[in-house]
Design brief:
- The structure is a single chain.
- α11 links the parallel β10 and β11.
- The chain has 19 helices and 17 strands.
- Helix content is 39%, strand content 17%.
- Strands 7-6-5-8-9-10-11 form a 7-stranded parallel β-sheet, with helices on both faces. A 6-stranded parallel β-sheet has the order 14-13-12-15-16-17, sandwiched between helices.
- 38% of the residues are buried.
- The two termini are 43 Å apart.
- The radius of gyration is 26 Å and the shape is globular.
């Protein structure tokens, strides 16, 4: 790397960072082109998230646009075999993030330009318009997206299928994540990394979406865990060849896909070139617009050995939409040792003089944070009328944060609402919270509802996805924005005013949690598969 340092004057920290990233780039392309001479042209990226790699098989000619002020330098890695064939990789290296970008890289949300005056004057009217647009898009999307499983032929038998090569390395698993950021699906993916490692597998992790991958520091600190930055430096069309080479070189026996589109797209290569590898996936939520990852998973179902799902709704979805039965396994996102030992005591009592209500979630439109704020505004009035001291907490970060803070000032709710960062001690907060609001426009089966009940907090949620499996009917609210707020207010009032209603909801919540606890957990479904892979069985 000396030629890079010599070509431009850099702060030592920046130089160290660029050298570390360059080594990741070289490692990726050395695996993809093990016998070629590799020629790299590095430029400094304008963003902190992703590189822009262009791969040319051969010696590519440089053009002036590659030699501007952002040009860092170039280097050549000789062919180990001296065969004379070259590959040129031109890529940017993302700049180091600014201090504020470590918390948030997405620009603050702003209403669409023609509707800015509407949001400024009537935020809920804007929400209503956006809701109607969402419903129209959902209606129009019906029939536009493939809902048939792709066929997978078994071959004629005239040609022998590839066999697993001899490999003395300990078996490994490849786990594909959406990204390494905060989220319920990511929580499960991190759990599976730990479980696979516990089962004795070496673990390779990739992410489908470029990001800062803020949670990569939470990967187990072990030489058996490797995070490959394909999301930054490998174009998607090269993933299939790379995955095949990785499987052969590292004795990968199992692929586990968590919402990772490039890994789904690599399945034809995996199935045809490495048929001994077992493939499983985990899915969480059917999205409005196009079905989301369960639909993608269903389309690829013939290439996948087992679908793990986290809700009963998804079992029905695979059966009713793709006619997949027999290889869909329900495994709840519960810890049987920690979550099911004792039923909780709920915090709230009827007619109590103070009430603590929280919202916990990423501040993106999916969670409908503007509706959360409108609900808090209406609940504040209700509390004054009933001589109740209301305290509200909003936990989360995202592009809507500044909008919510502005609305809090506009509604004069600064004294009632506390904004808390995403790394807040959520269990400790829930221990002090009476009611949790979750007015999302879309959910699978929200993990935070499990958390709320475990810590004695009553969840009130929109009736979307599989929320009905954990939230009783009387605590579910309709999706249209005004109806959502109206029903939240009615439920809170009834919980506070009516001891019999409150007692019944507590019983229903415990009943739902007990019923779900009777199902297998994700760990119970997945650990046998990991252990088989570790023994080279399956």
């Amino acid at each position: 790397m000396n030629n890079l340092q010599a070509s431009i004057s850099l702060d030592q920290n920046v130089a160290d960072y660029i050298n570390q990233e360059a080594e990741k780039v070289i490692s990726i392309y050395r695996r993809l082109y093990p016998s070629r001479e590799l020629r790299f042209v590095f430029r400094e990226g304008k963003n902190p998230i992703f590189g822009e790699a262009i791969v040319t098989e051969g010696k590519a000619a440089l053009h002036p646009g590659q030699l501007g002020a952002d040009y860092l330098g170039q280097m050549t890695v000789p062919s180990p075999q001296g065969d004379g064939l070259s590959v040129t990789v031109t890529t940017t290296i993302p700049r180091l993030p600014l201090p504020n970008e470590y918390r948030q890289t997405v620009a603050p949300w702003a209403p669409q330009r023609p509707l800015k005056p509407v949001f400024r004057l009537f935020p809920m009217l804007y929400e209503q318009i956006r809701y109607l647009a969402e419903m129209l898009r959902k209606k129009r999307s019906d029939g536009r997206h493939m809902i048939t499983a792709l066929p997978l032929g078994k071959g004629s038998g005239l040609f022998s299928a590839p066999g697993a090569p001899a490999n003395d390395k300990r078996p490994a698993v490849l786990i594909g994540m959406h990204w390494l950021e905060v989220g319920g699906a990511e929580k499960l993916a991190f759990d599976t990394i730990r479980w696979a490692h516990e089962a004795g597998l070496r673990v390779f992790v990739v992410a489908g979406i470029p990001e800062l991958q803020r949670l990569q520091g939470q990967l187990p600190d072990s030489p058996d865990i490797t995070f490959l930055r394909l999301d930054r430096y490998l174009p998607h069309h090269l993933w299939p060849r790379y995955i095949e080479d990785l499987i052969r070189a590292e004795n990968i026996r199992l692929i586990h896909i968590h919402h990772c589109t490039p890994l789904y797209d690599a399945l034809p290569q995996v199935r045809s070139m490495t048929p001994w590898v077992k493939v499983i996936d985990s899915t969480h939520i059917v999205e409005y617009a196009d079905g989301g990852y369960p639909r993608i998973s269903g389309v690829w179902s013939n290439f996948i050995d087992l679908h793990h799902v986290i809700s009963g709704e998804l079992v029905d979805y695979y059966r009713n939409t793709f006619h997949v039965v027999g290889k869909v396994r329900l495994g709840r996102m519960l810890d049987r040792d920690k979550d099911m030992q004792a039923m909780p005591e709920f915090n709230m009592q009827a007619t109590q003089k103070s009430l603590h209500i929280s919202f916990i979630g990423r501040l993106y439109y999916q969670k409908r944070p503007v509706i959360v704020m409108e609900a808090f505004r209406r609940l504040t009035r209700w509390a004054v009328q009933n001589n109740v001291e209301l305290k509200a907490s909003i936990v989360g970060e995202g592009p809507f944060l500044t909008t919510l803070q502005g609305l809090a000032r506009r509604y004069e709710l600064q004294d009632q609402i506390t904004f808390l960062p995403a790394d807040t001690d959520v269990p400790a907060l829930l221990e002090k919270t009476d009611i949790m609001l979750l007015p999302s426009n879309n959910e699978g089966l929200a993990l935070v509802c499990y958390e709320a009940i475990k810590h004695g907090c009553i969840p009130v949620s929109t009736d979307v996805g599989s929320q009905y499996e954990i939230v009783p009917p009387d605590l579910l609210v309709p999706l249209p924005p005004r109806a959502t707020v109206r029903q939240i207010l009615s439920i809170v009032d009834q919980l506070w005013r009516d001891p019999a209603f409150l007692a019944r909801q507590k019983q229903e919540l415990l009943k739902a949690l007990s019923k779900i606890s009777g199902d297998m957990t994700a760990r119970e479904v997945l650990m046998p598969i990991y252990r088989d892979a570790a023994r080279n069985e399956g």
